[in-house]
Structures are given as structure tokens and as C-alpha cells.
Design a protein that fits this description.
With 227 residues, the protein is α/β, with parallel strands linked by helices. It has a domain of 138 residues: TIM Barrel (Alpha-Beta Barrel). The chain contains 9 helices and 6 strands. The chain has a 6-stranded parallel beta sheet with strand order 1-2-3-4-5-6. Helix 7 packs parallel to helix 8. The protein is flat. The model has no long low-confidence stretch (mean pLDDT 86). Keywords: Lyase, Pyridoxal phosphate, Schiff base. Belongs to the PdxS/SNZ family. Pathway: Cofactor biosynthesis; pyridoxal 5'-phosphate biosynthesis. InterPro entries: Aldolase_TIM (IPR013785), PdxS/SNZ (IPR001852), PdxS/SNZ_N (IPR033755), RibuloseP-bd_barrel (IPR011060).
Length: 227
């Protein structure tokens, strides 16, 4: 019997199929699928999804954590959540196009910050100790070649991680960019705020101007309240 989460996901997919029939020029859409469920990925793509997200929140019974290992064969970009440096390297090796911070319970910006710091600390730890790195790589089923592009990295920038979780103000965006994220996923609460268009524009601008504190102050006028 289908779970509540599966029924809700099926309803979203069915709704998108109806929309696709009505509109040829469909805007970019991201569909969440259960981790490791390549059939759901195929269904989502048929329904018009431009991205698929192997989501920790799209739960399918007691399915073990088995990620789709041939992501490069999927015709749209695949998004994956990561919580450790090993996660980042494994998902890249599988062919993930976009890495985002994984959320384990409540979707919160402070949890995103903690995870980014932890990944950065792991990177520095294994960069500086070849023996320890070799043991760590072997433990996670990885090879030195998987780590090679990070050997001289000053921070996590080469991993191109997107911040995800509770990001709803221009200040949040600026913080994530300062932490060397490649970009951000805005929190769903933004779309139900008093003026979502204004807030979204301000947050998009903050991605480009995160180093300009005066600009961030201006962008925060009327958009600094947390949801």
C-alpha cells in the first residue's frame, strides 16, 4: 500500500502531466524522487521535470540508502544531498550534476552552516595527511583519483556545493556565499512571504553582491524578517 508521501508525490507528478499538456513552454521544475529509485526518475522526466532530486524527504518504505549509480545516463541534471566530504566524492563519482546540503530533520539554516564547516574541516584534515587520507579513501570505497582535484584547494569551492535548508533572506544568501557555496536553494517559505517577488529578487542579487555589505543592507530592507 502506498504511503502518504508516495501518494502526495504521485499527485504532484500527475498534476505536472496535466500542466505539460496545457503549456508547451513549461518553466524549469525540480521533482523529488526516492533515493535510488530510477523508475521514479523516469516518470518525473516524462512528466516534464527539468531536474530530479534524490531526496532524503522522499521516503519509500524501508528502502536502504542506495543512490542511483549511473546518474550520467539520466537525461536531466540529478541533484543529491551531501552531509560529509565522502558523500560529495561518492555522488560526484556517480555522476550527480548538483550537490546540495542534506537535511536530516528540520530544515534549518544553522544546520546548513554546521555541515558546510564540517566538510571544510574534513577537506583540510585529509589534504595534509596522505597516510590518513589513504585509509579514509579505502574505508569509503574511494580512490586517490577521486580526491585529486582537491589536493591544492584552499576551500570547498571545487566541490560546488549548493546551500539548502532554511535560507530565506539576502543575509542568509550572503553568508552561504561567504562559506564558498556555488549557489543556494531558497526555502519554500519564501514563496508564501508577504512579497515573494521582491524577496526572491533581493536574494538573487545577494548571490552576486555578497561581498558588498552596503548592498546587502539595502537588499535586506523589507526582506530581513525570517519566515
Amino acid at each position: 500500500m502506498a504511503t502518504k508521501a508516495e501518494k502526495e508525490r504521485d499527485a504532484r507528478i500527475a498534476a505536472r502531466q496535466q500542466e505539460a499538456k496545457k503549456k508547451k513552454d513549461e518553466k524549469a521544475a525540480k521533482e523529488e524522487i526516492a533515493i535510488g529509485h530510477d523508475i521514479e526518475a523516469g516518470v518525473a522526466i516524462k512528466a516534464g521535470a527539468n531536474f530530479v532530486d534524490e531526496s532524503e524527504f522522499a521516503i519509500m518504505g524501508a528502502l536502504p540508502t542506495l543512490y542511483i549509480d549511473n546518474k550520467g545516463d539520466i537525461p536531466v541534471p540529478v541533484i543529491c544531498g551531501v552531509g560529509t566530504l565522502a558523500d560529495c566524492l561518492k555522488r560526484r563519482k556517480e555522476g550527480a550534476s548538483i550537490l546540495r546540503i542534506r537535511q536530516t530533520s528540520a530544515v534549518r539554516a544553522d544546520a546548513t552552516v554546521v555541515t558546510l564547516n564540517n566538510i571544510d574541516n574534513e577537506l583540510k584534515k585529509y589534504q595534509g595527511n596522505a597516510v590518513l587520507r589513504e585509509m579514509w579513501l579505502e574505508m569509503h570505497g574511494l580512490e586517490e583519483a577521486d580526491f585529486a582535484f582537491l589536493k591544492d584547494a584552499e576551500d570547498i569551492s571545487p566541490l560546488r556545493i549548493y546551500a539548502y535548508g532554511g535560507i530565506c533572506t539576502p543575509r542568509d544568501v550572503a553568508l552561504m556565499m561567504h562559506m564558498h557555496c556555488a549557489g543556494v536553494f531558497v526555502d519554500n517559505s519564501v514563496f508564501t512571504s508577504d512579497n515573494p517577488r521582491k524577496r526572491l529578487k533581493a536574494m538573487a542579487r545577494a548571490v552576486e553582491r555578497y561581498d558588498d555589505i552596503d548592498e546587502i543592507i539595502k537588499l535586506s530592507i523589507g526582506t530581513a524578517e525570517r519566515m
